[in-house]
Specification:
Helices cover 34% and strands 21% of the residues. The protein folds into two domains: 274 residues, 3-Layer(aba) Sandwich (Rossmann fold), CATH 3.40.50; 194 residues, Nucleotidyltransferase, domain 5 (2-Layer Sandwich), CATH 3.30.420. It is α/β, with parallel strands linked by helices. The protein has 15 helices and 21 strands. The strands form four sheets. Strands 3-4-5-2-6-7-1-12-11-8 form a ten-stranded mixed beta sheet, with helices on both faces. It has a six-stranded mixed beta sheet with strand order 18-17-14-15-16-19. It has a three-stranded antiparallel beta sheet with strand order 13-20-21. The longest helix has 18 residues.
């Protein structure tokens, strides 16, 4: 058995790893394909870039010690990384291969998952590998393992290959230290390399990936500028493949859709549901800022309706929701009341919007006077005059007031969680405005608060959160509109 393994290793080490990948790496998506029969089908640009990445010199050493494989979303980045690891594990007796991501679950659910799946689908390999938790052991004795971000625990590793998955999220000290600890040892120079698979990140945060981008792309040389590769939504163009020989780095930084399933219809749909900068980041592999204007004001202004357009609404017959939001500093209080449009149930209409600000050196008077009522007095009047089915609020600043009013039985008060639900509410409000399903009368304070709002991208959900454009600006009515709209549509009122 030992002799057979050595012979197999020798055969593979003198053949093309890319040929092995196309012959032996299996994926479920092509199992019914009459040509591929379950094997991976590389695109021309992927095949050529892989051959360059795995090039050896006359001494049999790998030409590159760092390979950055950065491609747009849904270009099989993780699958290709997995295929390289598996091919090398087949040829490297007692080799060490590590998969590192932003957390252990991500490392195991991406590259490691694709390796396990390929082994199970391949009739030659199935049964020759042992799966034990996050560890995979090949018949060659090579070990493939997903590991957590723990620089101290991984110091002194003797890796033959380290895969860093989605490095755009590695913006914490521990993750950057991990990169330093997982460097290739001197004794394996030319026999090992680090492989980074990721799309672009947020320029102000992803320092590690951006530094590699600068070395590989900005200081690198474009390979094959005369060779054109197909682009699915445009004219053929050179592949954005760069080499920095002094750094021993090859960097693929593809910004164009080149796979047949990346169609114009697909991107037209994605453009409707993603913020513009997030679309550029994941679907065009472009560096972006982590925040942008919440909505273009021309979108907001297009939602304004005059008195002749605004629906005639039965105050007592229609169900209304009031949303309350107050600044942490106590220098602004916002109240917004809305209902669903009686003729267009998936549209939201703003019926009332008001803010309160304290006088210099004073606090907001929640009660106020008959002539100058404060937010609590206005809230009581609206509940009396309209069919208010719910008052939703940010619990951080308004717990005391709403608890007291709730005890009176004034209305149904519901705290609006400010974590995940806010992401969905803020993203939904943006969609409503883009699609002109958010009706308003152009209230000056409401417009100001929308104009003051930026959108911050959540890295996990690709949703947005409304944030201030600058610290001094107020956005409370915008946040109240988000909570009100979400509850109106969620409750189907």
């Amino acid at each position: 058995m030992r002799k057979e393994l050595a012979q197999a290793s020798q055969r593979l080490s003198t053949s093309d790893l890319v040929d092995w990948i196309e012959r032996e790496f299996y994926i479920p998506e092509t199992r019914h394909d009459p040509i591929l029969h379950g094997r991976i089908g590389l695109q021309d640009y992927q095949r050529d870039a892989l051959r360059e990445a795995l090039t050896r010199d006359s001494d049999g050493n790998f030409q590159y010690s760092i390979i950055v494989w950065s491609d747009i979303k849904k270009s099989a980045k993780s699958t290709i990384a997995a295929s390289v690891v598996l091919a090398r594990a087949e040829q490297t007796e007692w080799g060490e291969f590590y998969i590192v991501a932003n957390d252990l679950k991500q490392a195991d659910s991406r590259v490691n998952h694709y390796i396990r799946r390929a082994v199970q689908l391949n009739p030659k390999l199935k049964g020759t590998y042992r799966m034990n938790g996050y560890r995979i052991t090949a018949g060659s004795g090579a070990v493939i393992e997903a590991i957590p971000i723990d620089p101290s625990g991984e110091a002194g590793s003797n890796a033959d290959q380290v895969v860093f998955s989605e490095l755009w999220g590695a913006n914490e000290d521990a993750k950057q230290h991990m990169w330093a600890e997982m460097t290739i040892p001197p004794g394996k120079h030319g026999k090992a390399f680090r492989w980074i698979e990721s799309y672009a990140g947020f320029a102000e945060e992803a320092e590690l990936l951006y530094s590699l981008y600068e070395i590989g792309v900005k200081k690198g040389e474009l390979l094959w500028p005369e060779k054109l590769y197909p682009v699915t939504d445009g004219e053929p163009a050179p592949l954005e493949l760069y080499v920095n020989r002094e750094a021993g780095m090859l960097c693929l930084w593809n910004t164009k859709p080149r796979c047949p399933w990346q169609t114009q219809n697909y991107y037209a749909s994605e453009a409707q549901i993603l913020p513009a900068n997030e679309f550029r980041r994941i679907h065009r592999n472009q560096w972006v800022s982590n925040s942008e204007t919440f909505v273009p004001m021309e979108w907001f202004d297009a939602c304004m309706r005059g008195a002749e357009e605004f629906p005639a609404i039965d105050n007592r017959g229609m169900s209304h929701i009031i949303a309350l939001d107050a600044a942490v500093s106590g220098d602004c209080f916002a109240l917004l009341m809305g209902c669903r449009h009686p003729d267009f149930p998936d549209n939201v209409a703003v019926r009332y919007a008001q803010i309160w600000k304290p006088k210099a050196g004073q606090k907001i008077n929640y009660q106020g006077t008959e002539e100058n009522p404060g937010p609590e007095l206005v809230l009581r009047r609206l509940i009396k005059d309209y069919n208010i089915v719910q008052v939703t609020y940010d619990p951080y600043q308004l717990h005391d007031m709403t608890s007291r009013l709730k005890q009176e039985g004034l209305a149904w008060f519901k705290a609006f969680p400010q974590e995940k639900p806010r992401l969905y509410a803020d993203s939904q409000l943006r969609d409503l405005i883009r699609e002109r399903r958010f009706w308003h009368r152009g209230e000056a304070d409401l417009r100001d608060h929308f104009q003051n709002a930026n959108a911050e991208i959540d890295k996990e959900d690709h949703k947005i959160r409304i944030v201030k454009r600058t610290e001094k600006l107020k956005i409370d009515l915008c946040v109240a509109a988000s909570m009100c709209s979400y509850e109106l549509l969620r409750l189907n009122l």
